[in-house]
């Protein structure tokens, strides 16, 4: 697998709306900006996602697939995966599903 960086393409209004929608599902967003939306993992979500200590859930865009997610740090997500969502509502629901089941949907 090749490293596919999460790129700096998300419009600020879109980031704010997606952040609010994720928070409406009861998840705390640690940081958000046009490069990424970052969620620190609780012990429960670390276990659910099989994450290593210190990893965060990073939501961003890649040129390859649009909205992606990955485990890592805001500045490096080694293997982002497509979230498979086209709208803010759908993306927030998939992030919630990911954090509660370990699968994007």
Structure description:
Helix 1 packs across helix 3. The longest helix has 14 residues, at 88-101. The mean pLDDT is 87. A hairpin with a 2-residue loop joins strand 1 and strand 2. With 105 residues, the protein is α+β, with helices and mostly antiparallel strands. The radius of gyration is 12 Å and the shape is globular. Helix content is 32%, strand content 23%. A five-stranded antiparallel sheet has the order 1-2-3-4-5, with helices on one face.
- Alpha-carbon Rg, integer: 12 Å
Instruction: Report the end-to-end length measured between terminal Cα atoms.
Output: 22 Å
Ranges where pLDDT stays below 50 over 5 or more residues in a row are none
Spatial arrangement of strands, main beta sheet:
1-2-3-4-5
Strand content: 15-25%
How many DSSP H or I helices? 3
Report mean pLDDT, rounded to a whole number.
87
Largest sheet: 5 strands, antiparallel
Structural class, from secondary structure content?
A: alpha+beta
Helix content: 25-40%
Q: How many beta-strand segments?
A: 5
Shape: globular
Task: Give the ordered list of helices and strands.
Answer: HEEHEEEH
The protein's oligomeric status is single chain
Topology record:
Blueprint: H1 12-24, E1 31-33, E2 36-40, H2 43-49, E3 56-62, E4 66-72, E5 81-82, H3 88-101
Helix pairs in contact: 1-3
Give the structure's gist in a few sentences.
The chain is an alpha+beta fold. The chain is built from 3 helices and 5 strands, in the order H-E-E-H-E-E-E-H.
Key attributes of the depicted protein:
globular, five-stranded antiparallel β-sheet, 23% strand, 105 residues, alpha+beta, 32% helix, single chain
